[in-house]
Amino acid sequence: MRTSDKIANTAPFRFTLALCCTVAMAMQVPAQELASAVPTDESQTAAPAEVAPAFPDRRHALIVVGLPGDPTHREQFEAILQIWQDWLVKFAAVDSADIMVLDGRDATEGRLPATQESIRSVTDQLVERIGEDEALWVFWLGHGNQERRHGWFHLPGPDMNAAQWAARFAELKAGEQVFWMTHSASGSFVKPFSLPGRIVISATDEDEINEPRFPRQLAEVMRQQLAERATAGPTAEPASPAKDPLVSILDLFRRTADRVGRSFDDDQLLPTEHALLDDNGDGVGTEVADLAMIDSQSIHSTAAQAVIDGLLAARTIIMTPEPPPTPDDPAAPAATQQP
């Protein structure tokens, strides 16, 4: 795990605790055991600061579909897009009216063209109207390439590079910000997008340029989850963070990355993509294998979140149910989704 430069500016106790958490992760020693060894005085509390999961009042989503390049990819992109939209509405509690699609294939009713002009207009509107109590998730689906200075996403007309894309969201105030870069050469987008309090996911690392399997596997995980909820039925016991295997962004990332890895194993091929997650604002993503040691104690430590990737994603809950119906209200639904 990595130590952020910003940690040097925090209070001594928080710095010591964060360093202990990092060392504990590296040595596979429970962080709480090291935390107990941190010296304290009357002005310091022994327990780390805790942050309970917060749910946004409203979620918005933007999906940018780039140039397909050929009929096969056109069909693939459409199938993936349909699953993503369905999942956002039925599982992530995004109102269909709050999902915007910019399409690099053909502009149709309800879809604007994915041109630089439309991108500027739409992102300006989103940044202006989305408040701190709301959320924005952005997905990229398409092709990209990497050159010496920048990663690019292919659009009809002039392409946009990672720095140009990041600038479109620099002033975003949303309290929950999740960026899913699923295109080729997406690893170079991580650093420009990285900010404290923001979750950035890429399908590849910064040196990989092959077409990734990540978007298809992400759609497959979403499809399976929708099927599981449909099978459970309206009388099923309400989902909860302790029971639902895909309750958080981290869970969704892990399961998708694991499927990508297994697909290469099944094909007896060396993997050509390694998905990254950055949510501590240091601009350096972490692969799924290095996120496996995160424990429940660290998730709620604000000091640990400054140095360990995955903690913010672990407490960013995708779906949460309402409380189960009371005996006085037997007709009430057993579970509903709330943002």
Please tell me what the overall shape is: globular
Strand order of the largest sheet: 3-2-1-4-8-9-10
Q: In angstroms, what separates the terminal alpha carbons? A: 31 Å
Low-confidence spans: pLDDT under 50, at least 5 residues?
A: 1-51, 238-246, 321-327, 329-339
Please give the share of residues in helix.
25-40%
Which class of secondary structure composition applies to the elements? alpha/beta
Count of DSSP strands: 12
How many H/I helices? 11
- Please compute the radius of gyration using only Cα atoms: 21 Å
Question: What brief labels describe this structure?
Answer:
339 residues, alpha/beta, seven-stranded mixed β-sheet, three-stranded antiparallel β-sheet, 12 strands, 34% helix, disordered N terminus, disordered C terminus
Structure description:
The protein has 339 residues and is α/β, with parallel strands linked by helices. Helix content is 34%, strand content 15%. It contains eleven helices and twelve strands. The strands form three sheets. A seven-stranded mixed β-sheet has the order 3-2-1-4-8-9-10, sandwiched between helices. A three-stranded antiparallel β-sheet has the order 5-6-7. Strand 6 (151-153) and strand 7 (160-161) form a beta hairpin. Helix 7 (214-232) crosses helix 8 (249-266).
